[in-house]
Automatic annotation (TrEMBL):
EC class name: transferase
Limits of the Tetrapyrrole methylase domain: 4-207
Family the UniProt entry places it in: Belongs to the methyltransferase superfamily. RsmI family.
MF terms in GO: methyltransferase activity
Main location, first listed in the record: cytoplasm
Source organism (scientific name): Streptomyces salinarius
Protein name: Ribosomal RNA small subunit methyltransferase I
Gene name for this UniProt entry: rsmI
């Protein structure tokens, strides 16, 4: 008989949000794998429970090395509880590798559902919630961050991001550059904590606000791109969208196909627009060259 891997959600702020089953799982697990054992200790003290099993650390730095050990424990029949600092394991936190390895070994995986900064921010944002996608943390380097944002520049679903407070102003400015300064967004800070704040507005406005300095845990929710019908997308816009995708690393053929599908027009129409724009640029370049020769008296 194999054991069971339990993924348990932990409070993202207010400890009273801890799911009732969390205390029982902490007390009964054979092994408790925690992202930060010191934070786990504070949590167990607040819940008035003492883990009876072995407590081990499981964080980004040792995740690869510790996963095989925990899988062997599970294969031997142990009940392993995985908790992170806040929210659900695996969601921008350690856990995915362990879940994948446990599934591969045929180990049962279950969960104790709990608080989620993603869903909480989404619900509070005031933006559409029927369709959304979670993008996690953006790259720290400016160029890579812009490239990642360009990949979703035409995404119509609401976007949810995590961000560090000291990078928030740069991130919002980059979003304003790629998505447009007027694109609606919400910055959710310190969710469920004493100084919880939800700041709503255009990306440009929010970037200016964040420049004054922001503290705390941050979740950013951004409105999806407007839904433009095929009749609203002219040739110039089609070309721009293809270029955005090419700059993000897509090959032209795939970029044209994706833009055509998104705009609801034939691929040939997008291809012709790209070719026409390229020829126009070449013609403009030749014209500029002739003007230069004329001015030089050649």
């Amino acid at each position: 008989m194999t054991g069971t891997l339990v993924l348990a959600g932990t409070p993202i702020g207010d400890v009273q949000d801890a799911p009732p089953r969390l205390a029982a799982e902490l007390a009964g697990a054979d092994v408790v794998a925690a992202e930060d054992t010191r934070r786990l200790r504070r949590l167990t003290q607040a819940l008035g429970v003492a883990p009876a099993g072995r407590v081990v650390s499981y964080f980004e730095g040792n995740e690869s090395a510790r996963t095989p050990e925990l899988v062997e424990e599970l294969a031997g029949g142990a009940r392993v509880l995985l908790v992170t600092d806040a929210g659900m394991p695996s969601v921008s936190d350690p856990g995915y590798r362990l879940v994948a390895a446990a599934v591969e070994r045929g180990v049962r995986v279950t969960a104790v559902p709990g608080p989620s900064a993603v869903l909480t921010a989404l619900a509070l944002s005031g933006l559409p919630v029927d369709r959304f996608c979670f993008e996690g943390f953006l790259p720290r380097k400016a160029g890579e961050r812009l490239s990642r944002l360009r990949e979703v520049a035409e995404e119509r679903r609401t976007l949810v991001y995590f961000e560090a407070p000291h990078r928030l102003d740069d991130t919002l400015a980059a979003m304003a550059e790629v998505f447009g300064a007027d694109r609606r967004a919400a910055v959710c800070r310190e969710l469920t904590k004493t100084y919880e704040e939800v700041r709503r507005g255009g990306l440009g406005e929010l970037a200016e606000w964040a420049g004054e300095g922001v503290r705390g845990e941050i979740t950013v929710v951004v409105e999806g791109a407007p839904d433009k019908g095929a009749e609203e997308v002219d040739a110039g816009e089609l070309v721009r969208r293809v270029r955005v995708r090419e700059e993000a690393g897509e090959r032209r053929k795939e970029a044209i196909a994706a833009v055509a599908a998104q705009a609801g027009v034939p691929k040939r129409e997008v291809f012709d627009a790209v070719v026409a724009a390229k020829n126009a640029e070449k013609g403009a370049g030749r014209g500029a060259g002739k003007d230069a020769e004329k001015n030089a008296g050649i």
